[in-house]
Amino acid sequence: MDKVYTFLERATVKYLTKRKALKAYEKSRKKTILTELYSWIDALVFAVVVVMIINQFLFQLFVIPSPSMVSTLLVGDRVVVSKLAYGLEPYPAARHRFFTGNHRVERDNIITFYNPEYDSKGPVFDILSQAIYMGTLSLVNIDRNPDGSVAERLYVKRAVGFSGDQIRFSNGNVLIRPTGYRDFLTEEEFRRINGLSDGPNRSADLSLYDGLKAWGRLYADREKGNTNRVSHLLNSYEAVKDSRYPFDMYEFEKQRSKEYTYIDPADREARNLNSRFRAGIYVPVDYILPLGDNRDNSHDGRYFGPVPENRINGRVIARFWPFTRIDNLTDK
After folding, report:
1. Which runs of consecutive H residues, i.e. helices, occur in 95-151?
2. Is 113 in contact with 307 (CB distance < 8 Å)?
3. E strands present in 262-311
4. pLDDT digits (tens, 9 = 90+) for 196-239
């Protein structure tokens, strides 16, 4: 044992002596602009790499880009996303996770997921833009649409529909038939029975929906050059005629497809589309139907359908900006 202790003692002394000499050398070196610049760059690169690792594997910062989650989350809110909530994602947009265990998405979680309609600009740009976004703590996003707006690579919505659920939409209201149920429940009733949050809200007056329906049908009539059914819709349309954009595009398209079937009952494509609107959305196994809390103004699963669980990026757990609205979001 004495030999072992002697060896360890000599090795330790040698290491410390060498380290002390190295520090003395570094201290005695003449500092130049280049050495200072190199030191700053080295520290900056190290910090960015650490931030990227934290963003990828532990927590990610996210800026709310649209009003789809009003009033739970407002445009410009900055939130913290737990990347370990549903398992470990080895790299961005990976389709397989590790250490998932029982870490499954739960109903009503506020989640981030990869936009099913995202138009990739190539792997090099995707990696670079993600690196800059993560490295700057979400302050800089170079990923832009042709019109200059920020490209939404990630969406943030609420997990509403689960495997086996059938969900319909009427006048902006959500109707849910969970697995094992024969009848549809209103979302309000379903949430009350299951003790869920009251996050979802309506931003449009329900009385405007008659006008919106007329708008969708008039739009179809104009497209098809039909003038036989126009007059009786105009009075209802008066209430929304000054709107620049339909406040509930899903209901607008639903009425538009219905009018197509009235104009030409033999139009098979129109009949199929109208049938899908009436039937609603069925959520397959291992899929989630995400919906925005701002039910009258959200581009969500109503348009692109359910998303696979393996495309879910993480869970929103807290809002840290603005300071006046710092909040825990795990129970919202």
Report:
1. 123-135
2. yes
3. 281-282, 287-291, 307-308
4. 998 899 888 889 999 999 999 999 998 988 877 677 788 899 99
Give the residue extent of every domain in the chain: 54-167+283-328, 206-276
Long-range contacts of 320-328 (CB under 8 A, 24+ apart): 320/78, 320/79, 320/80, 321/77, 321/78, 322/76, 322/77, 325/74, 325/77
Coil, strand, or helix at residue 166? strand
- The CATH fold of domain 54-167+283-328: Umud Fragment, subunit A (2.10.109)
Residues of the chain with confidence (pLDDT) below 50: 1, 4-5, 8
Alpha-carbon separation of residue 323 from 119, 142, 255, 318, 327 (angstroms) = 34, 26, 43, 12, 9
Q: Give burial (CB, 10 Å; 0-12/13-18/19+) of 307.
A: buried
314 token code pair: 């993480």
The CA distances from residue 107 to 4, 197, 332, in Å, are 60, 10, 12
User: Considering the entire predicted model, what is its pTM?
Assistant: 0.81
Widest CA span in the chain: 106
3-state SS, residue 200: coil
- Contact (Cβ atoms closer than 8 angstroms) between residue 134 and residue 164: no
Tell me which DSSP letter residue 181 carries.
Answer: -
Give the span between the Cα atoms of 141 and 129, in whole angstroms: 7
The phi, psi pair for 189, rounded to 5°, reads: -65, -45
Strand, coil or helix: 135: helix
Angle between helix 249-263 and helix 268-279 axes, rounded to 10 deg: 140
**C-beta of residue 312 within 8 angstroms of C-beta of residue 112:** yes
Per the structure block, which two tokens stand in for 199? 């996050």
Task: At 329, give phi and psi (nearest 5°).
Answer: -110, 10
Q: Over the stretch 283-305, which tens digit does the pLDDT of each residue have?
A: 999 999 999 999 988 999 999 99
- Cα–Cα dist 279/112, whole Å: 27
